[in-house]
């Protein structure tokens, strides 16, 4: 396992906070979508779309969202500049308004004792198995802020956020990984499969999904299972793969309890990671403490620590010392979290 | 005079030689004297039996000319009997999205038992000389005349598979792309097994889910429903007879399986039963017709000059009548050319 | 004299009345004057146009007797055009285990586009009086005669769906067991939508995987391929015409969809084109035939006494000839009874 | 969750040991199969079959088994009588010789915005997804020895056994639960589905499977997915269910890390529980200690504790005290485990 991001991350993650997006983040979020140039594929590149996303977060925080739309947006903020440099989105229940599609990778064994033949075929089933699951998506860190632990901070923040509102989230949480692409940004899997069914290009198909216009998937996608063994080798090898740019992310998520459970993306066959929400590291192993102000001891353990609820949720990584039932954090960190002495914080020790 | 009749044991040597000359295992006839001998015995039983509905019978017809065997053709009363006959149905699936302005047809090959119980015509096997098309056509017409005059022995639907394309090395691109992935044996071996009685391994090994054609390698797509160059005359003959080959292909090599409703096969549709008249004036100048006698174990057919006379009788030569074992006023089945 | 011709705008009131008398939405004709008016206009355009291959055309024929409208029948050139026509194919799957000594046929309903583009004959709608079978048969024969004389306008395959069984409350047991599970709407509503242009909701809502028949409630199995008592005469008529109803059923109510290759439909198979002869001696004693004139927008058919004379001409009455808009020696298409 | 077995179990489980079966257990194991009267459905009711099972265990212990046949049999022994009163079988990799079939329960959503319709259908796919997994099966306790914690002891023993030979087991371990049956012992699911395909009765079909004659499943089972919503309500409600007799077992297994992951038995639709082998309670949380002899302190923690390797594997439940890195067990327990002071034992604290 290669963990390119992990080493610098714990050390410099303190440079950032993660907080819940507010209505007045619309412009900053729109700028992030534009900068991502398609990487935030679920988000249309329009100011209106960004505003709509933030309104949905507001309704969710106010308890006024429907089951289908309830979801949150967490932003990565550079404490020095106050700039928004990354994000992750949480959806409480996917697929309740329009179907959520993916492929499930199954096995079919054909054997004949008479022919002494035994063959195990892998087969892709178009399915909506993940309907009702919670999802993390749109995990993104701006190019110029990478390598500093922002992605890890966002994933841990998401888990701590979920831990604080567990009743709103489903028993299972998923995250889709970008799949393998050729140097020219085409996906070998798309070339071998999707192209024949859609007659539009991959980006075009993804854009329609971003706009919520998913009827075409039902209309055009293969209704029958696809035998993997009949596809070109180049496509087979990318099924359940991960884009090299995010190769470091999967091990982080696996350490937190996500597993590849044989679901892959319908367009690029990228792996979907799944976890039992309650067993996620940040849910099962985080604890609530009362915050204390002070200077943590030299060599004190580092913590992922979150304060505030709902729209006040704010999270960072920082050293902290345990004293009695209190977690002692530096006054600077406390103020950054918008918390004061005696406030309740949720913290997860860095391993 | 080209004469067609049920195969008998004394044909074995000539048949074996013809099969051997045609080369390796073939969908027409087994290239194996032992199997051929068994087939002849089965066929003799089938022709001799009283049959009320099609079952496991196999009817083997041979064509002779001047006493020499020049061709043979096998008719299987009920394909796959008593189990299933396997084929790929080339399913058309319409994929339309009004919103995307897309409306196209997808094709998918579905393992199907649709042809089970249909009467199966194997391609005629003809000793390779210049008269091949003539002998092939006569065999096909004779088989259809036999079916027309003995309807209870056969199914309402007729099928006729032709072997699929192979490349210069004798390999089937379709097999390489599909069958080889599902079987642990070679194409030859699979073909041999498939001709056998116990085909339960097909259920065990073949794909249950449809295979999307556009996802296959182009080489495999290109040979789908195509037959080998050597079978193009047979292909044309079946088309002339009204067979269609759009929907079913062979599970091993992707070759076409032709289908026709019995009543739509040309030779059956135009066949007429008329009283026979031996007529000395009939000769080379009259057009040749296929004539058949409507018998079972004494089934005979000839390719002979004949003419429908104004009195409604079918005039032909004494030689033809004698080969048909018919005399004046006996009913003869005539398939006009 | 029973006369059949293309519907025209002036038929609207009588048609609407006939449709209304037949009751609720029906697979024959819409029970809605606005839709009927539109349909007549479409039909007039279709009859008038030069057509090289079947497309979105709908041909509406009406039968009149003594000037009064007594029936109507709609022919759709290409089912589902330009998209898909949906039906369930009743697939036969042979399940055999030599070891268990089991060999049985399973049936499964597969959503299919097979019938897309086939020419679709809606069941004739006839004002409910004692002459129903006569008028229905004449309408079907006239439609087939029109197809026979205008082949480029129609597909090689013909289909004819009949409505499925309903229980005493007008509910369809098949819909309750299958359709209702996949649609969020009532049977009536689904049927109405299915008759409309945009059927993309079918792709969105219908099952993609086959449905095993033995796993359905017995009530639903029992009505599979069955039509309502009121349609039994039409059922018999289609059987007489050579249609078969083994393989396809309606996705909503499980009613049978009859299929026939164009060349095998009886009225097309036996139809003869002969020169007409007006003959004063023809009268009630001669058998009635369906005669048609082979025109498009001026298509006319009548049920009239007629006789094939030894000179090869078709003799009929002056009245019939005049209704057909034909004179002596014009070619007439005759469908013997 | 009802846990009828759990309370008495920890207290009286010390009455039993669990050990690896030896060749000379053939008669005792055969007697158990007969007594089970079909409940040990994977085992043919013949002395030869029992002998063959034990030979397979011997070959596995000796490292001479093929990948397809490698497996172990653990026996529950009543220490007082020396009688074999229960068993559990471990297979390292299922489905490598003949296909292992089950149904996967998937979701297909059909929605139409025009019709404002949204339907989520559950669908059963016949599959071989679990090919290559490890399996616990034939978990059985004799009727007269029930209610004393034997079943729990067997499941914990299996986990400790796996922990000691982890390289032999697959990343995923499964266990099939008996499904719901009517009072007359017929399964509503079988009546609604299997019966139509097999034309033999359920017991007959299960017996063929026990004899390893599985070809008929490929020959006869439905190749197409089965829509659950089209089945009778009585059958639908049993999918993923558990036989009331073992209702207490599922929560025990779930606490140890097994989850229902939407696979069910093809005959009675009983749930299949699955676990990532490395995260099983007995694997992830057991530790190796050196054994010490002595009297554990009053109120000492109780442990699931195993000693010995391979054919010497023996396990029981007992109180033990930790002293330095040693686990102090009573001399009686040590002797029962066949271990002496200083021997290595693997132990898992009872929660």
Q: What is the domain tally of chain B?
A: 3
Q: Give the strand line-up of the largest sheet of chain B.
A: 12-15-14-13-16
Strand order of the largest sheet of chain A: 8-5-4-9-10-7-6-3-2-1-13-12-16-11-15-14
Structural class of chain A: alpha+beta
- Largest Cβ-defined interface: A-B, 35 and 34 residues
User: Tally of extended strands of chain B?
Assistant: 16
The Cα radius of gyration of chain B reads: 21 Å
CATH fold title of the largest domain in chain A? Aminopeptidase
Question: Helix-strand pattern of chain A, N to C?
Answer: HEHHEEEEEHEHHHEHHEEHEEEEEHE
Assembly of the depicted chains? heterotetramer
Instruction: Specify the biggest β-sheet of chain A.
Output: 16 strands, mixed
What count of helical segments of chain B does DSSP give?
A: 10
Distance between the termini of chain A: 17 Å
Q: How far apart, in Å, are the first and last alpha carbons of chain B?
A: 16 Å
CATH class of the largest domain in chain A: Alpha Beta
Helix content of chain B: 25-40%
**Whole-angstrom Rg of chain A:** 21 Å
SS-derived structural category of chain B: alpha+beta
Residues in helices of chain A, as a percent range: 25-40%
CATH architecture of the largest domain in chain A: 3-Layer(aba) Sandwich
- Sequence of secondary-structure elements of chain B: EHHEEEEEEHEHHHEHHEEHEEEEHE
Keywords (chains B, C): Acyltransferase, Arginine metabolism, Transferase
Protein name (chains B, C): Arginine succinyltransferase
InterPro entries (chains B, C): Acyl_CoA_acyltransferase (IPR016181), Arg_succinylTrfase_AstA/AruG (IPR007041)
GO molecular function, one term (chains B, C): arginine N-succinyltransferase activity
Q: Can you characterise this structure?
A:
- The complex is a heterotetramer, with two copies of chain A (about 350 residues) and two copies of chain B (about 325 residues).
- Chain A is an alpha+beta fold.
- Chain A folds into two domains: about 15-285, Aminopeptidase; about 285-350, Barwin-like endoglucanases (Beta Barrel), CATH 2.40.40.
- Chain A is about 25% helix and about 30% strand.
- Chain A is built from eleven helices and 16 strands.
- Chain A has helices spanning about 5-10, 25-35, 45-60, 150-165, 190-200, 200-210, 215-220, 235, 250-255, 280-285, 330-335; strands at about 15-20, 70-80, 85-90, 100-110, 115-125, 135-140, 170-175, 225, 260-265, 270-275, 285-295, 300-305, 315-320, 320-325, 325-330, 345-350.
- Chain A has a 16-stranded mixed β-sheet with strand order 8-5-4-9-10-7-6-3-2-1-13-12-16-11-15-14, with helices on both faces.
- The relative contact order of chain A is 0.15.
- In chain B, about 55% of the residues are buried.
- Helices cover about 30% and strands about 30% of the residues of chain B.
- Chain B is an alpha+beta fold.
- Chain B folds into three domains: about 1-75 and about 125-150, 3-Layer(aba) Sandwich (Aminopeptidase); about 80-115 and about 155-270, no CATH class; about 270-335, Barwin-like endoglucanases, CATH 2.40.40.
- The mean pLDDT of chain B is about 90.
- The longest helix of chain B is centred in the middle third of the chain and has 18 residues, at about 130-150.
- A five-stranded mixed barrel of chain B has the order 12-15-14-13-16.
- In chain B, strand 14 and strand 15 (about 315) form a beta hairpin.
- In chain B, helix 1 (about 10-20) crosses helix 2.
- The radius of gyration of chain B is 21 Å and the shape is globular.
- Classes of the chains: A alpha+beta (about 350), B alpha+beta (about 325).
- Chains in contact: A-B, A-C, A-D, B-C, B-D, C-D.
């Amino acid at each position: 396992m290669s963990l390119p991001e992990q080493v610098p991350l714990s050390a410099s993650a303190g440079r950032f906070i993660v907080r819940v997006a507010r209505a007045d983040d619309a412009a900053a979020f729109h700028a992030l979508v534009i900068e991502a140039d398609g990487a935030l594929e679920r988000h249309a590149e329009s100011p209106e779309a960004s505003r709509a996303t933030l309104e949905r977060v507001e309704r969710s925080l106010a308890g006024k969202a429907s089951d289908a739309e309830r979801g949150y947006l967490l932003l990565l903020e550079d404490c020095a500049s106050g700039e928004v440099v990354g994000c992750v989105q949480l959806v409480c229940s996917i697929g309740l308004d329009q179907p959520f599609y993916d492929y499930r990778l199954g096995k079919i064994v054909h054997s004949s004792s008479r022919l002494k033949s035994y063959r195990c075929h892998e087969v892709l089933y178009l399915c909506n198995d993940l309907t009702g699951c919670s999802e993390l998506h749109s995990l993104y860190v701006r190019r110029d802020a990478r390598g500093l632990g922002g992605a890890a901070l966002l994933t841990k923040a998401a888990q701590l956020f979920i831990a604080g509102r567990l009743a709103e989230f489903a028993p299972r949480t998923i995250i889709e990984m970008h799949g393998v692409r050729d140097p020219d940004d085409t996906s070998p899997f798309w070339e071998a499969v999707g192209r024949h069914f859609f007659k539009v290009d991959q980006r075009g198909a993804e854009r329609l999904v971003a706009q919520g216009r998913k009827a075409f998937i039902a209309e055009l996608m293969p209704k029958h299972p696809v035998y993997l063994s009949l596809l070109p080798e180049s496509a087979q090898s990318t099924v359940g793969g991960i884009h090299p740019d995010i190769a470091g992310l999967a091990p982080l998520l696996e350490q937190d309890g996500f597993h590849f459970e044989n679901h892959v993306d319908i367009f690029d066959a990228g792996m979907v990671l799944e976890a039992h929400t309650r067993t996620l590291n940040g849910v099962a192993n985080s604890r609530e403490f009362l915050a204390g102000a002070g200077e943590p001891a030299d060599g004190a353990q580092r913590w992922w620590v979150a304060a505030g609820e709902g729209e006040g949720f704010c999270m960072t990584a920082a050293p902290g010392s345990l004293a009695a039932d209190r977690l002692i954090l530096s006054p600077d960190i406390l103020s950054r979290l918008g918390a004061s002495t005696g406030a309740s914080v949720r913290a997860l020790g860095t391993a | 005079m080209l004469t067609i009749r049920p195969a008998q044991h004394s044909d074995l040597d000539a048949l074996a030689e013809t099969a051997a000359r045609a080369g390796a295992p073939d969908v027409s006839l087994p290239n194996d004297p032992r199997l051929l001998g068994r087939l002849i015995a089965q066929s003799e039983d089938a022709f001799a039996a009283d049959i009320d509905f099609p079952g496991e019978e196999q009817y083997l017809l041979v064509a002779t000319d001047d006493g020499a065997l020049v061709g043979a053709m096998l008719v299987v009363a009920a394909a796959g009997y008593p189990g299933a006959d396997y084929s790929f149905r080339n399913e058309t699936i319409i994929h339309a999205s009004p919103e995307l302005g897309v409306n196209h047809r997808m094709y998918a090959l579905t393992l199907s038992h649709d042809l089970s119980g249909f009467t199966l015509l194997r391609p005629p096997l003809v000793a390779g000389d210049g008269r091949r098309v003539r002998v092939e056509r006569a065999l096909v017409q004779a088989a259809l005349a036999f079916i027309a005059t003995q309807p209870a022995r056969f199914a309402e639907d007729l099928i006729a598979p032709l072997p699929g394309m192979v490349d210069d090395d004798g390999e089937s691109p379709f097999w390489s792309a599909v069958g080889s992935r599902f079987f642990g044996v070679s194409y030859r071996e699979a073909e041999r097994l498939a001709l056998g009685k116990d085909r339960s391994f097909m259920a065990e090994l073949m794909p249950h889910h449809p295979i999307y054609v556009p996802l296959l390698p182009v080489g495999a797509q290109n040979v789908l429903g195509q037959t080998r160059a050597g079978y193009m005359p047979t292909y044309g003959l079946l088309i002339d007879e009204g067979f269609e080959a759009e929907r079913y292909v062979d599970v091993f090599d992707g070759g076409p399986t032709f289908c026709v409703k019995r009543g739509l096969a040309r030779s059956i549709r135009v066949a007429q039963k008329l009283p026979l008249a031996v007529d000395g004036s009939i000769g080379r100048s009259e057009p040749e017709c296929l004539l058949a006698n409507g018998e079972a174990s004494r089934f005979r057919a000839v390719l002979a000059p004949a003419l429908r006379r104004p009195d409604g009788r079918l005039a032909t030569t004494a030689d033809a009548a004698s080969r048909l074992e018919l005399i004046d006023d006996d009913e003869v089945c005539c398939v006009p050319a």
